[in-house]
Design a protein that fits this description.
Elements: H1 3-29, E1 38-40, H2 41-54, H3 56-64, H4 66-88, H5 95-117, H6 132-138, H7 149-156, H8 164-182, H9 193-218, H10 235-254, H11 259-277, H12 280-287, H13 296-308, H14 311-321, H15 324-345, E2 357-360
Helix pairs in contact: 1-14, 2-3, 5-8, 5-9, 8-9, 10-11, 10-15, 14-15
Length: about 375
C-alpha cells in the first residue's frame, strides 16, 4: 500500500469520526445548551422585567401577594418539568416538534423585536407597522431589486436562502400536524383560502422581522439596541471572517522569499487564526448539551488534536508528489475552507446562561 493511499485512508477515517459526532449530537445532544431542569437568576430577572414592561400592576400584585408568587413559581416548575421530560424522551428531535420549536422561537423574536422598535409609535396590533408592500416584496411580488453576484452564486450552488414558499409549507404543515394531534376533530382540517392567506401574511411578517433583526445584530449592539434582550447567533460571523482573511494570506505566507516577508507572513497568519479560534472554547461550551458539558469540550479538543496529528504525515505524502510549499499551502487552504463552511453554516447557542440555578426541577 502506497503512502498516498494510507494518507487518503486516514483522511476518510477522520471525516467518518466527524460525521459520527454530528449524528450523535443530533440524536443525543438535542437542542444545544438547552437545559430545562433549572432556571437561573438571570432568566428569572428577564421574566420579571418583561412583566414590568407589559403589566406593572400585575407585578405589583405579585410582590404584595406571597401566595400568588408561590403559585406562579409552582406553575413555572411544572412547565420546566414537562419540557425536561420531553427533551429526555427525544420529543424535541422529532420532526414536527423540532420544527414547531423553531417556529415558536421565530415568533418570540419577531414579537419582541417589533414591540421594541415600535414602542414610541403609539398603539398598533402586533406587526401592524409592516405594510402590504413589504409583504409582497418578501414573496417576490412586484418590482424587485436585482440580487448581487454573491447571492446569485449561492443560489446556483444550493447554498442560498431556502425558497420562502417551501419554508411556509413547512410552517403550515407543522401547525396543522400539531393541531390534529391536540384536537382529533381537526386532524383532517383543510385551510380555506382566507385562512391560508392570513397564515401566509403572518409568516411573512415574522420572517421579515427576524431577517431585519439578524442583520442588525450582526452589525453589533449599536445598530440594534434590543440585541441584548434577544439572543441570536453571531459566533459564525466572529469565526468565519478572520478565517476568510487568513485564507487570503495563505499565498503570501507560503511564497515568502526573505526573512522579512517570512516574519510578516507568519505574523499575519497567526493573527487571523488566533482571532478566529480565540472564541472557540466558549463556543464549544455553549454548543455542548447541559448534561455533557463537563465532558464534551475536552473530548472535542482531543479529537481535534487527533486529527491535527495526521497533518504532518499527509503533508509529507503530498510533498512527495508536489513541492513542500504547494503541499503546505494546499492543506491550509482545505482546512480554512472546511472551517469557514462549518462555522458559517453550523449550529450555535449564543447567549446560553452558565449561572448557578436558583431552583431545580426534580427529575
Amino acid at each position: 500500500m502506497s503512502s498516498l493511499t494510507k494518507g487518503l485512508i486516514l483522511v476518510i477515517v477522520i471525516l467518518g469520526i466527524g460525521g459520527a459526532l454530528v449524528v450523535w449530537k443530533n440524536k443525543v445532544g438535542g437542542h444545544a445548551g438547552a437545559n430545562f431542569n433549572s432556571i437561573s437568576q438571570e432568566e428569572l430577572d428577564t421574566l420579571v422585567a418583561d412583566i414590568a414592561k407589559q403589566d406593572p400592576v400585575a407585578l405589583k400584585r405579585l410582590g404584595a401577594d406571597p401566595e400568588m408568587k408561590k403559585q406562579q413559581l409552582e406553575s413555572l416548575k411544572q412547565i420546566l418539568a414537562f419540557a425536561s421530560e420531553a427533551q429526555r424522551e427525544g420529543l424535541t428531535n422529532e420532526k414536527p416538534y423540532k420544527q414547531e420549536l423553531e417556529n415558536i422561537n421565530a415568533e418570540v423574536v419577531a414579537v419582541n423585536y417589533d414591540r421594541d422598535i415600535n414602542k414610541d409609535k403609539g398603539p398598533m396590533p402586533p406587526f401592524g407597522f409592516i405594510g402590504e408592500d413589504r409583504v409582497k416584496a418578501y414573496w417576490g411580488e412586484g418590482d424587485q431589486p436585482p440580487a448581487g453576484w454573491w447571492e446569485n452564486f449561492k443560489n446556483k450552488v444550493g447554498l442560498g436562502k431556502e425558497d420562502h414558499n417551501i419554508e411556509f409549507d413547512k410552517f403550515i404543515e407543522t401547525k396543522l400536524t400539531i393541531l390534529g394531534e391536540s384536537n382529533p376533530k381537526m386532524k383532517d382540517h383543510q385551510l380555506t383560502d382566507d385562512e391560508r392567506q392570513q397564515a401566509r401574511d403572518f409568516f411573512a411578517k415574522i420572517s421579515i422581522l427576524n431577517d431585519e433583526y439578524n442583520e442588525k445584530l450582526a452589525k453589533g449592539p449599536s445598530a440594534n439596541p434590543s440585541a441584548t434582550a434577544i439572543s441570536r447567533p453571531v459566533c459564525r460571523l466572529a469565526n468565519s471572517k478572520p478565517l476568510s482573511v487568513a485564507l487570503l494570506v495563505v499565498p503570501f505566507w507560503v511564497s515568502a522569499h526573505n526573512m522579512v516577508m517570512i516574519v510578516v507572513g507568519v505574523f499575519l497568519m497567526q493573527f487571523f487564526v488566533q482571532g478566529a479560534w480565540g472564541v472557540v472554547p466558549a463556543h464549544i461550551n455553549e454548543l455542548s448539551p447541559g448534561q455533557y458539558r463537563g465532558f464534551f469540550p475536552g473530548f472535542a479538543y482531543q479529537l481535534g488534536i487527533l486529527c491535527a496529528a495526521s497533518i504532518p504525515y499527509v503533508e509529507s505524502v503530498l510533498g512527495e508528489r508536489f513541492t513542500y510549499t504547494q503541499a503546505m499551502g494546499g492543506m491550509m487552504t482545505v482546512v480554512f475552507v472546511l472551517a469557514i463552511t462549518v462555522m458559517y453554516f453550523g449550529p450555535e447557542a449564543r447567549g446560553v446562561s452558565f449561572r448557578k440555578p436558583i431552583g431545580a426541577v426534580p427529575e
